[in-house]
Amino acid sequence: MIPYIPNTEKDQKEMLKEIGARSIEDLFDSIPRNLRLKTDLNLPSSLSEMELVNELKGLSRKNAHLDEYVSFLGAGSYDHFIPSLVDHLSSRSEFYTSYTPYQAEASQGMLQTTYEYQSLICKLFQMDVCNASLYEGATALVEAAVLAHNVNHRKKVLVAKTLHPEYRQVLTTYINKTLGLSIVEIDYENGVTDLAKLEEKINKETACVVIQNPNFFGCLEKVNEIEEITHQTDSLYIVSLDPISLGLVIPPGEYNADIAVGEGQALGGKLNFGGPYLGIFTSKKDFLRKIPGRIVGETTDKKGRRGFVLTLQTREQHIRRERATSNICTNQALNALRATIYLSTLGEEGLAKVAHLCLQKSHYAAKRIYQIPGFELTFRSPFFKEFAVKCPVSSHKINKLLWDNKILGGFELGRFYPELENSLLFSITEKRTREEIDKLTLFLEDMV
Amino acid sequence: MREPLIFEKSRKGRRGCSLPACDVDKENLEKLIPKKYLRQGSLGLPEVSEPDVVRHFVRLSQQNMGVDTNFYSLGSCTMKYNPKVNEDIANLPGFTRIHPYQPQASVQGTLQLLYEMEKLLCEISGMDRISLQPAAGAHGELTSLMMIKAYYEDIKEHRDTVLVPDSAHGTNPASSHLCGFRTVVVKSNKDGGIDLEDLKGKMSERVAVLMLTIPNTLGLFERNILEVSRIIHDRGGFLYLDGANLNALLGIVKPSDLGIDIMHFNLHKTFSTPHGGGGPGSGPLGVKGKLAAYLPAPTVEKDKKGYYLDYDRARSIGKVRSFYGNIEVIIKAYCYLRFLGREGLKKVSQNAVLNANYLMSKLKRYFYLPYDQPCMHEFVLSGVEGKMKDVRTLDIAKRLLDFGFHPPTIYFPLIVKEALMIEPTETESKETLDAFVSSMIQIRKEIDDDPSLVKQAPHNLSIGRLDEVKAAKELKLRWKEKKSGD
Q1: Do B318 and A298 count as a contact with CB atoms less than 8 A apart?
Q2: What is the Cα–Cα distance from A302 to B217, expressed in whole angstroms?
Q3: Which class is domain B85-339?
Q4: Which residue out of B29, B60, B127 would a mutagenesis test of the A interface target, given it has the greatest number of A Cβ atoms within 10 Å?
Q5: What CATH architecture applies to the domain B347-471?
Q6: Are the Cβ atoms of B106 and A403 closer than 8 angstroms?
Q7: In this predicted complex, what is the ipTM?
Q8: What are phi and psi of B299, to 5 degrees?
Q9: Of these four, A371, B259, B292, B296, which has the most CB atoms within 10 Å of its CB?
Q10: Does the domain spanning A84-342 belong to CATH 3.30.1360.40?
Q11: Minimum distance, in Å, between the CA of residue A394 and any CA atom of chain B
């Protein structure tokens, strides 16, 4: 007997009798006999629960994890503190074993938390509308660019080179190779988008300008100047961002972004080797009927009691099919729930404090590092929690030494930016202590 | 009792979380960041205590039906039991606390798991290679279509059309459109299969691919699959399998033997990972032969030194998301496959099909079954035939909630009027199925005796039937403070 399958032999016999079939095999008669497998699949034998746990624990131990190593690595995936409540409450199985809330009356829990998620994100971003989530940051950005093209039918997308390199790759796959739009990258100057280059490249064919703020180097973009340039040609202004930064950085609604998206992993999400994460998608209300994915709205029942339902479903694939605004069906509801619990738990003061701790600690770390002879900051622009450091020796060698001393070093920027070889991008979250930062600088001093 | 919104529980000065004091020398904020880049005003987040947060979300969870609390008969969704041990394993720090840019030598455990997962899925499907990157089934579909498009561009064949049957999932035509293809719909025949004459008429050198769900969304196996495959392949097209219904075929049929060239899996359906209230899922895609070169980068490979991520793939379509996939979901599905193994997997499909036929056999005496033949893992009833006294399928669904059952998928597939699509899965017991049948019979009686009871349902939940028209008209999509005087 398999524990997940309740049917006993007796059950099976009774059920077959009801059906009027002689054997289970008979139930598969609609499959032509020559197509049915004659032998068992060549898979490993089944395991007991105990054996499974032992084997998988063994596999997990082949990974070196960040309870054992001190991490200074970010670059789009962040080791922030996760309050206990996030795991406890999101593992309520009424939540995690439920389906998409198509039957609203049976799904008020998930619908209300999603409505709260939309409300919290709208507040934080200062944007008009937010959907129920998309897969992760890069595909959320793709959906934003597709929306821009659908709105103004223009065929050129301007992308800041300071946008996460993997996001630029994903945009290329979707926007350029698949939809045939052209992508033009805008160079950077001192770690932020070069405004002169942007003005040079933008024209009436530009569907949208895509930036990241804080950008991949951790620097704060000149968001107001970019807004002016972008809207001069009536192009859409798209910003990708780290929601933690909004604890102290100006939100996209304040600088007139048309669409603001982001990777929401930092909001109570686990590192998980890159997924599942959370694609945040917000926009101005003008685009409401064109935005992708599910949206929850408030309504009432017959007695006038407040309740929540999926709404504006005529945008979606299960109703509109090939004319849908996107093909998304399954989203990242549980990750959005984690973000909701995280933001509720941290609250007004908590999130601001996390952001300030990141800011202060990263600046302390930067100062300590650039005071080491031979090391200097790659850029001199204001930054939030990440900063690039030009190293006097191979950045790869530095990371190796750090790793040998139980430290996960910065991101080696040369991988995506050949011109920045030997620059390391350090990420300092609120979890890093002064002691750990001082230890990092001691090892860096040893390198020169 | 309705639970207030978290914002409505907010009281100035309360907090739900403690954070350490700043242990480095603090600089003046505006010295670090110019004022114009700083946020002015509040964040707008609630101020609630820790017990407030706990009670809020626990109460909300109690207003939600999950597989752990109720039988979910949702067709095409495969709402099977989600094994708890898989949750524990996926939450081991060795799996959750690893960064996607860590040195590859330091994540050999996860890379090995991904490598082995690919092998397991290859064996189950007969495909040559798998990409584990797509975040969901629809993402797998889209990625597959991108690969097919790239292939035809390479061999300089202009193919701009995707064929889908009229019973297809909505994601198929939506993915096709998003990829820049034209969608042409192929009719079903009277037995619910592909109409071969219609297919022949619509197949041409413009067609890149036919997207099929097997068993189809009526729960029926495509008996003429080899003929379908010949029609498509003879004129140079590909055959795509939407793997949403794979739960009927494990260890019974290999998709490659049906002529499938490319397909996606739904780990959150077939391989028991929780649906999470709508996600995260995982939609790996599998390919045969020449399409493998176009898989998204990176793939997971193995050499003498160990496992590694291979980005060096000349004809790859590129990246379709950041990093490598919904790893936590993949770990749970891997656990499921290893637990069941060779012996168990076939029993999954056998019992899923047995349960569906049992339910169908009992229910067809009370409800109209438009395609009256043995089904696979699911079947579709129609809520309109007979004297239903103006009661619609939606009403039946809402009334089922009163009996503690999550209703079937309704109004899909589109080719059945007032459809009720029922998929019990293998993890439900005969007693549960019998109880479901009793409730359906009871509802059928109520339709005759007291239709308003059904039309007004649900009656026993924390809320009554919700007004969706009002929601779409008023469009309250976020909470806002009441201004004084409101």
Answers
A1: no
A2: 34
A3: alpha beta
A4: B60
A5: Alpha-Beta Complex (3.90)
A6: yes
A7: 0.98
A8: -100, 165
A9: B296
A10: no
A11: 16
Q: β-pairing, A206-212 with A236-241?
A: parallel
Domain boundaries, chain A: 70-81+348-446, 84-342
Chain A residues whose beta carbon lies within 8 Å of the beta carbon of residue B331: 56
Non-local (6+) Cβ contacts of B21 within 8 A are none
- What residues of chain A lie within 8 A of the CB of B472, using their CB? 297, 311-312
Lookup result for tokens 């909300």: B60
Residue A320 main-chain phi, psi, to 5 deg: -90, -10
Tell me if domain B85-339 and domain B347-471 are identical in fold: no
CA angle B145, B146, B151 (to 5 degrees): 95
| Contact call for residues A395 and A414 (beta carbons, < 8 A) | yes
CA distance A108 to chain B (A): 6
DSSP symbols for B246-276 = GGGTTTT--GGGGT--EEE--TTTTT----T
Give B55-92 as a 3 state SS string: HHHHHHHCCECCCCCCEECECCCCCCCCCHHHHHHHCC
How far is B376 from chain A, CA to nearest CA, in Å? Answer: 7
Rounded to two decimals, the pTM is: 0.97
Enumerate residues 171 to 230 of chain A having a beta carbon within 8 A of any beta carbon in chain B: 172-174, 177-180, 220, 223-224
Alpha carbon of residue A172 to chain centroid: 18
Task: Write the residue in B66, B139, B324 that is nearest to A93 by C-beta.
Answer: B66
Determine the topology of domain A70-81+348-446 in CATH. Answer: Aspartate Aminotransferase, domain 1 (3.90.1150)
Per-position pLDDT tens, chain B of length 486: 689 999 999 999 999 999 999 999 999 999 999 999 999 999 999 999 999 999 999 999 999 999 999 999 999 999 999 999 999 999 999 999 999 999 999 999 999 999 999 999 999 999 999 999 999 999 999 999 999 999 999 999 999 999 999 999 889 999 999 899 999 999 999 999 999 999 999 999 999 999 999 999 999 999 999 999 999 999 999 999 999 999 999 999 999 999 999 999 999 999 999 999 999 999 999 999 999 999 999 999 999 999 999 999 999 999 999 999 999 999 999 999 999 999 899 999 999 999 999 999 999 999 999 999 999 999 999 987 666 778 999 999 999 999 999 999 999 998 999 999 999 999 999 999 999 999 999 999 999 999 999 999 999 998 999 999 999 999 999 999 876 544
What are the structural domain ranges in chain B? Answer: 85-339, 347-471
